[in-house]
């Protein structure tokens, strides 16, 4: 196994864990498509990184976060839903990104679908640090966000600022997506935030189990996708997605066989 | 919202409270005060401002006027609607958001007439309407509040369970000396299970003992055309 694959596995496992963990909120908030679409917004940032010779992931993160904050603010001002606003902006970001990449098709392909051969020790360490931080911070706001989901009034009456927690949450999503782009690319990274959580929710009757399963499914999807990618020598992104979907299907069958209800 | 510095018998004083939402007057110059330990029902037709009054008391909406709670008053609130159908959360986890002590959780569940061992690890989404309302009452009392605010506490519950829940609520509030503010549409329930009633139709249109709410003249006041003249003394 090459060093790049080993480092990619570290990145995949930790980002998969973090994405599964915080993705569980996104699925509860019924924002699954938001997570998916939002990830495409990174593309112009990645392009600027390639054009001006700085780390594209930094550009990707900056674009993700600024867009997330803008969408969050527009949502508060216009009262339009996240879905509507993300729907209106992500295709524009995708278009700008593709234009910025111009005829640099290799870089565009890497940005869209990921490239694990570029993952080294530094990327692995950064991914571990960010993933641990994301999980720790998500843990801090998790209960508050869930209470806000159950009843906004209950949350506010307990002194919880829903807007502030949502903003922090969007920052964490941006960070995780930016790191995950290395493995799956912008087109498919949203998957890591959505599908593991959807599978976990199908067979969970309580939050602890939901969070645990969602994180584990995220990590397994990423790791098995990367292993297959290195074995078959093809792009990791699609294989990560296929692994995750396989987990989802297995979970649906288990639920169907056991008539699991919650 | 002000917490009163000098304790007196009044746990809540509301003076000249007005709430306007999107340029529409929802509550107009409402004044009342209540003493500790009593139960007060808020009645009135749809759109009369009952829920908005609660939201103002909880500081959830901007308002004009003055709301003064007694010093160090702890408020337990149960809203009309919870969205739990799509959230995999157990009763234990839900209650732990307010009080981590399992002992307190079980005591609260038992005091609302639930088998705490059997229900504590169930998912909220699987509970019946009656169980759900009881769990919500347990949520409200699990950290020993001084005041309970209930918005239609038996929404979605069948008639038999409704009476049982109100009976239990009354016992609970009397036993623990909890002040109860209750929104209800059902005047029969109001008469049976509360001490006083405040009828709202933007302004206060009736304030008196709950036993009088079934009186035809009072009903006309409550559900007839609102006449927002200055209401006299409104306190208990």
Fraction in beta strands of chain A: under 5%
Low-confidence stretches of chain B: none
Indicate the overall shape of chain A.
globular
CATH topology of chain A: ABC transporter involved in vitamin B12 uptake, BtuC
Total number of beta strands of chain A? 0
Would you kindly provide a brief summary of this structure?
The complex is a heterodimer of chains A (262) and B (236). By secondary structure, chain A is mostly helical. Helices cover 85% and strands 0% of the residues of chain A.
Keywords:
heterodimer; A: 262 residues; mainly alpha; ABC transporter involved in vitamin B12 uptake, BtuC; 0% strand; B: 236 residues; alpha/beta; six-stranded mixed sheet; four-stranded mixed sheet; 8 helices; 10 strands; 27% strand
Question: Which helices and strands appear, and what pairs or packs with what?
Answer:
The complex is a heterodimer of chains A (262) and B (236).
Chain A: H1 3-28, H2 32-40, H3 42-51, H4 56-78, H5 82-101, H6 105-113, H7 121-150, H8 152-157, H9 162-184, H10 186-202, H11 207-232, H12 236-258
Helix pairs in contact in A: 1-7, 1-9, 1-10, 1-11, 2-5, 2-10, 3-4, 3-5, 3-6, 4-5, 4-9, 6-9, 7-9, 9-10, 10-11, 10-12, 11-12
Chain B: E1 2-3, E2 10-21, E3 24-35, E4 39-43, H1 50-57, E5 64-69, E6 75-78, H2 91-96, H3 102-111, H4 116-119, H5 129-141, E7 147-151, H6 159-175, E8 179-183, H7 187-193, E9 196-201, E10 203-209, H8 216-223
Parallel strand pairs in B: 1-5, 4-8, 4-9, 6-7, 7-8
Antiparallel strand pairs in B: 2-3, 2-5, 9-10
């Amino acid at each position: 196994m090459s060093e790049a694959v080993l480092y990619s596995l570290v990145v995949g496992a930790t980002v998969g864990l973090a994405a599964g963990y915080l993705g569980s909120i996104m699925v509860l908030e019924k924002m699954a498509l938001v997570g998916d679409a939002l990830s495409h917004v990174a593309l112009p940032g990645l392009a600027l990184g390639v054009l001006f010779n700085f780390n594209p992931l930094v550009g990707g993160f900056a674009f993700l976060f600024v867009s997330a904050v803008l969408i969050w603010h527009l949502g508060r001002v216009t009262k339009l839903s996240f879905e509507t606003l993300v729907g209106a902006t992500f295709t524009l970001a995708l278009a700008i990104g593709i234009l910025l990449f111009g005829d640099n098709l290799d870089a565009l392909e890497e940005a869209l679908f990921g490239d694990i051969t570029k993952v080294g020790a530094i990327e692995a360490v950064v991914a571990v640090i960010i993933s641990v931080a994301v999980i720790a911070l998500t843990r801090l706001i998790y209960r508050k966000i869930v209470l806000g989901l159950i009843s906004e009034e209950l949350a506010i009456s307990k002194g919880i600022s829903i807007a502030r927690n949502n903003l922090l949450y969007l920052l964490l999503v941006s960070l995780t997506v930016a790191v995950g782009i290395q493995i799956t690319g912008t087109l498919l990274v949203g998957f890591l935030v959505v599908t593991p959580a959807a599978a976990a929710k199908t067979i969970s009757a309580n939050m602890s189990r939901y969070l645990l399963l969602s994180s584990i499914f995220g990590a397994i999807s990423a790791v098995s996708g990367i292993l297959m990618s290195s074995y078959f020598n093809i792009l990791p992104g699609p294989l990560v997605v296929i692994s995750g979907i396989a987990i989802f299907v297995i979970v649906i069958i288990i639920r169907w066989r056991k008539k699991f209800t919650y | 919202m002000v917490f009163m510095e000098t304790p007196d018998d009044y746990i809540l004083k509301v003076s000249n409270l007005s709430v306007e939402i999107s340029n529409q007057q929802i509550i107009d110059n409402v004044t009342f005060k209540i003493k500790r330990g009593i139960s007060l029902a808020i009645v009135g037709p749809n759109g009369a401002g009952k829920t908005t009054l609660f939201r103002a008391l909880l500081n959830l909406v901007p308002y004009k006027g003055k709301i003064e709670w007694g010093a160090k008053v702890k408020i337990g609130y149960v809203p009309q609607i919870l969205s739990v159908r799509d959230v995999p959360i157990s009763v234990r986890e839900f209650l732990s958001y307010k009080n981590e002590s399992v002992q307190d959780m079980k005591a609260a569940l038992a005091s609302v007439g639930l088998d705490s061992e059997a229900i504590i690890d169930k998912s909220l989404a699987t509970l019946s309407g009656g169980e759900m309302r009881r769990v919500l009452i347990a949520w409200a009392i699990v950290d020993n509040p001084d005041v309970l605010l209930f918005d239609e506490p038996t929404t979605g519950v069948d008639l038999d369970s409704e009476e049982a829940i109100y009976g239990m609520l009354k016992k609970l509030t009397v036993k623990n000396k909890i002040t109860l503010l209750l929104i209800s549409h059902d005047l029969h329930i109001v008469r049976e299970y509360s001490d006083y009633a405040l009828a709202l139709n933007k302004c206060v249109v009736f304030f008196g003992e709950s036993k009088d709410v079934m009186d035809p003249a009072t009903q006309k006041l409550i559900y007839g055309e609102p006449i927002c003249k200055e209401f006299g003394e409104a306190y208990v």
